[in-house]
Protein 1
Amino acid sequence: MDRALYLAMSGGVETMNAQTIHANNLANVNTTGFRADFEQARAMQVYGEHYPSRVYAMTENPGTRFTPGSMIQTGRNLDVAIKGKGFLTVYDSKGQEAYTRDGNLQINAAGQLVTGTGLPVAGVDGPIFLPPLQSLTITSDGSISIIPQGGAANQVAVIGQLKLVNPDPDNLRKGEDGLIHSKDGQVFNQDVNTQVASGFVEGSNVNAVEEMTHIMDLSRRFEMNIKMMNTIREDSAASSRILQRA
């Protein structure tokens, strides 16, 4: 009976792990540029100093859904959305290049272009710093043009260009920080064919109905594991009573 109890227990734990993945997706249904995670279960043997006769289900995250989300028009000059495939390049908390679809850009107190969460945005030549300006325009290739503060309408200066990349999705992974990273740690080159739309942001690609359906299905599966553990406990108690009478 211990084998059945172990299977039921491990199944319940892994079902809770699967629920965590789908609950995180659902919680980010309105997060700009969020990419939904997949989950799957597979058989995993219990290894150790014994014959590997025990097998349990293990939940894992095999990948991330990279399909584009819906385009949301904001009319704000600092908002950009990737057209089709590709990513904006940012610097993560360790100063390494990472990638995102969140184009809700800001200018911090130091004049640096950052994301809505404060991460520095990478340009083709490094971080992007902006002088005091009167207006700003981001073109489809990611070039940033400004009219300096107090300047005339014809005094347009190109300050820099967003680093836009379009790597193979098979070489990408989503980190715990919510950013996209390369699996092998390589830095991707600028892709001249990737374009942005100014005045738009991209919504999450989470399907709320699909995620709710998964969560309800997993809840029923968890209840089934609990019922199985209770049945095993009752059977074990009944067997003990029979042995006591013998």
Note: The chain has two helices and 18 strands.
Protein 2
Amino acid sequence: MSGFDKVVNSYEEAMAGLQDDMTVIAGGFGLCGIPEGLIAQIKTMGTKGLTVVSNNCGVDGFGLGLLLEDRQIKKMVSSYVGENALFEQQLLNGELEVELTPQGTLAEKMRAGGAGIPAFYTATGYGTPVGDGKEVREFNGRNYILEESITGDFAIVKAWKADRYGNCVYRHTAQNFNPMAATAGKITVVEVEEIVEPGELSPSEIQTPGIYVNRVIKGNFEKRIEKVTTRD
């Protein structure tokens, strides 16, 4: 395989270089489309003082919730506390700094960061605590606040398929924040269900081009369901 091959064979290699006090951007929504093995590797490494940017923080004992157990996360930038009691407890006790961000704004912060755009104006949050202290401008008679974009030292992403060059395809709603997160990391690591050979993915189906991806690893996923709802 050529020097463009980005496949790594161990989680240690996948997360090599992660250090204390770094910023990690994580894809996923609830427990859907989360890079389970990469999160577990951060838990194993014991890396501390992390700023984690993600829609939410998993649940107690799974997903990003694992990193709360040993106080590995210093700050969460997220839009939803979710079903995680430990997250709520650490927030209320002042042990965890939390920057609550509207969901669409959070997605755009990642996308803009990946596109090299330092900031953007949005109407979302104007006139609320979200807008406190932020620059305001009026466009066409409506007020907008200035939001800064986000980049991370690492981005950890879950995809359905990737080729050895790092070109990625997501599956249904597991796509969620993953494509935006993938663009915003200095080092982007993608955990996938299937690795295919270059040329097997049609260019028209690739959702994250390999230019954004540094490492690819094949994972084994539990795919835990956050809330099971059934009917008779």
Note: Residues 103-114 form the longest helix (12 residues).
